[in-house]
Design the sequence.
């Protein structure tokens, strides 16, 4: 440092001491006065102000203490109901095309060409079917859900949600902007973790990162929607089935938000002690959403990108599933050995070995949980006459056939409920774990963010299973 | 300062004829391909003013935009070619001020100060002009090379506001271009203004506060400014540095100590510190 610089700093220090307190305020005030004067000169309001200010009226309603939360619940239930009801038909059309028609054609084509059985097994029964399943199950709901969600976002609703949740977050010792990163997490947890960058305090940012996983990402929606439709929707009259299944899915999502608060609260009192910092949240003006633009960005930017990730992940997973189901050791396949190994713990948790193995195989992509479970169940129960054989992923035509298989695998309503709970509360997918590491550059916090939800998931399912057993429900 | 300050001609910039002017055919959106740029353009503005939309309109990228503050959390870069010049466009985080009270504000300020962009485009919300001008005035203290993009003109109209962009341009001393970025309205005029400021085709006379209405403070600022100008000849914003020092700004003190302010006065670009978002330092 030159002497000139040293002089400069000491002069500045001396002058600052001379001027005393309140300097910052004087500067800011001078700035604001000037800005106000300039704005006043440039802006004119010809005529009267509009008598009815739509923005203000909407804000009063959407962020009202009484109506804010019910409206939030209604809006999201509506979005999920449209998603569930709207994706049934295109999903089954796609499944018919890709799985029921194209797959047998490819198989017989491969046989005719003399492709060895193991190659067509790995490529067609493993990789192709896994991919086809993911496409037919995920594409329609995503193509409906993402545009709807983006419309809400474009319109300006999400900051109002953040506003509503802010009080709860600050009571939990977390940053109010965590509501925004949580919203992103409902699309994709990896994106949610990245979006925690809007939080300045490192302590609050870590809380937001660790709890982001409790926002259900799109990879988990199909699992929840399907299990809810089969086991919960079917328990009520058909006319109500759609609404009740949607409500159950929303219920799990709301539970996730609740867990976010509880875990944030616990973290801010133990590992990450501190006060919630104050911030100002701007409620942006409502803007009429641009429908076409929204369709474009949500189809290209979200749906296709998420789908391509799911497909890339399900290819190797399909190969792994086929392989562990077809390579035998001592008379039983590797998969069967693993299922036997996991069964005691799984049953204790009100799940089973198949579910735990499926979650192990599906770490790269939550999307393939259901097909993996179905395939492994068929394998372990030795059911015949369904699907296409050992280690072959498949999609069944009707929900009742899936339910029959799961019943044969020892499934009860408790298994279904606990699967939904475990789907909400378990370790993040590998992409999210990697993102957490990239964002924190800390193995310790990555491990906490990975293992904390897993441990919590075990604890919660163990509790519900124990209660159900104590009440004699299973 | 320049001897012959020429006021920008907002009437020429916003004329409808520009849309059909052959000059505009030169816009080539370069996406993320920004090698060999001639000029660096920084994009600043309050959160939620349509900054990302302007960024996308200029670069052809489709960075996701959302109607909430804080959507752009990292610096995004893109490029475009206009009038035979290649521009690198850097989208800074949206901020309400540049007082470096948050990471976002520090990133934005460091880039404008040390990155020395050839032009800084400030996207301002026409419906909330006063609050947006706070940021504009702060940026004008740091750099002369500014174009104000007065966005959301349609919203202003919807709210019954009439914004006189010509008067604003005269008051601020820099070009002011009214736009509706989501429909592409005013983008050709914005490009022309950026081009003209970058190439020096228009000379600017930005508004700078000369007094703080506080005699003791004004005297202190004058003393310190003189000393800064002596220590760092050629520094374009000595008065602003003086104010920051009086305000006890730690990062400016650091810049003086480690010599990066000295580099700046010699007209060198200083790499803006990146990777400020690490949180691993938090101890349990």
Sequence:
């Amino acid at each position: 440092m030159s002497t000139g610089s040293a002089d400069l700093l000491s002069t500045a220090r001396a002058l600052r001491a001379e001027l005393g307190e309140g300097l910052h305020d004087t500067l800011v005030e001078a700035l604001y006065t000037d800005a106000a004067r300039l704005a006043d000169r440039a802006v004119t309001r010809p005529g009267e102000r509009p008598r009815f200010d739509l923005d203000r009226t909407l804000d009063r309603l959407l962020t009202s203490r009484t109506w804010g939360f019910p409206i939030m619940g209604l809006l999201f239930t509506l979005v999920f109901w449209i998603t569930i009801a709207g994706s049934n038909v295109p999903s089954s059309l796609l499944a018919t095309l890709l799985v029921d028609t194209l797959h047998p054609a490819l198989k017989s084509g491969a046989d005719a060409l003399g492709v060895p059985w193991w190659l067509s097994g790995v490529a067609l029964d493993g990789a192709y079917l896994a991919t086809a399943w993911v496409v037919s199950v995920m594409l329609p709901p995503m193509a409906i859900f993402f545009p709807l969600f983006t419309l809400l976002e474009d319109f300006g609703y999400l900051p109002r949600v953040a506003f509503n949740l802010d009080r709860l977050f600050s009571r939990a010792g977390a940053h109010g902007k965590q509501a925004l990163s949580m919203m992103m997490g409902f699309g994709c947890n990896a994106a949610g973790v990245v979006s925690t960058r809007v939080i300045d305090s490192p302590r609050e940012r870590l809380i937001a990162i660790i709890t982001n996983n409790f926002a259900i990402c799109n990879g988990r929606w199909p699992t929840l929607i399907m299990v809810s439709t089969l086991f919960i929707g079917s328990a009520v009259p058909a006319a109500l089935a759609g609404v009740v299944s949607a409500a159950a899915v929303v219920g799990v999502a709301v539970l996730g938000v609740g867990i976010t608060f509880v875990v944030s609260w616990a973290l801010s009192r133990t590992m990450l002690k501190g006060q919630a910092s104050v911030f100002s949240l701007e409620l942006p003006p409502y803007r009429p959403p641009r429908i076409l633009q929204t369709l474009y960005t949500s189809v290209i930017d979200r749906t296709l990108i998420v789908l391509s990730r799911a497909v890339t992940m399900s290819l190797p997973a399909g190969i792994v599933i086929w392989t562990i189901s077809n390579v035998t050791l001592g008379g039983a396949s590797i998969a069967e050995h693993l299922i036997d190994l996991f069964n005691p713990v799984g049953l204790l948790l009100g799940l089973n070995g198949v579910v735990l193995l499926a979650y192990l195989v599906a770490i790269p992509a939550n999307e393939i949980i259901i097909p993996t479970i179905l395939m492994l169940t068929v394998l372990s129960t030795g059911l015949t006459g369904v699907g296409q054989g050992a280690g072959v992923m498949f999609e069944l035509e009707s929900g009742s056939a899936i339910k029959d298989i799961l019943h044969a695998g020892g499934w009860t309503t408790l298994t279904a409920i606990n699967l939904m709970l475990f789907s909400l509360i378990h370790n993040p997918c590998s992409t999210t774990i990697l993102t957490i590491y990239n964002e924190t550059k800390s193995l310790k916090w990555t491990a906490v963010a990975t293992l904390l939800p897993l441990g919590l998931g075990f604890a919660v399912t163990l509790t519900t299973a124990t209660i159900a057993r104590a009440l004699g429900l299973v | 300062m320049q001897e012959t300050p020429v006021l920008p001609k907002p009437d020429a910039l916003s004329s409808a004829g520009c849309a059909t002017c052959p000059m505009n055919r030169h816009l080539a959106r370069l996406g993320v391909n920004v090698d060999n740029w001639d000029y660096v353009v920084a994009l600043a503005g309050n959160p939620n003013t349509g900054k990302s939309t302007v960024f996308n309109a200029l670069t052809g990228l489709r960075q996701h935009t959302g109607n909430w503050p804080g959507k752009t959390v990292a610096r995004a870069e893109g490029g475009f070619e206009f009038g035979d010049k290649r521009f690198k466009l850097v989208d800074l985080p949206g901020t309400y001020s540049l007082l470096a009270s948050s990471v976002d504000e520090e990133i934005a300020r460091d880039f404008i100060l040390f990155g020395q962009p050839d032009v800084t485009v400030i996207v301002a919300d026409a419906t909330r002009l006063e609050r947006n001008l706070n940021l504009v005035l702060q940026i004008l203290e740091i750099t002369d090379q500014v174009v104000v993009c007065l966005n959301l003109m349609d919203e202003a109209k919807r709210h019954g506001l009439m914004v006189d962009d010509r008067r604003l341009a005269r008051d601020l001393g820099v070009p002011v271009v009214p736009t509706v970025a989501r429909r592409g309205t005013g983008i050709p005029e914005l490009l022309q203004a950026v081009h003209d400021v970058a190439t020096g085709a228009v000379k600017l006379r930005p508004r700078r506060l000369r007094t703080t209405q506080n005699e003791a403070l004004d005297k202190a600022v004058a003393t310190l400014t003189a000393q800064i100008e002596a220590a760092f000849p050629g520094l374009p914003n000595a008065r602003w540095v003086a104010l920051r020092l009086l305000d006890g700004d730690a990062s400016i003190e650091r810049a003086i100590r480690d010599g990066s302010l000295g580099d700046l006065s010699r007209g060198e670009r200083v790499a803006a510190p990146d990777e400020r978002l690490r949180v691993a330092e938090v101890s349990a």
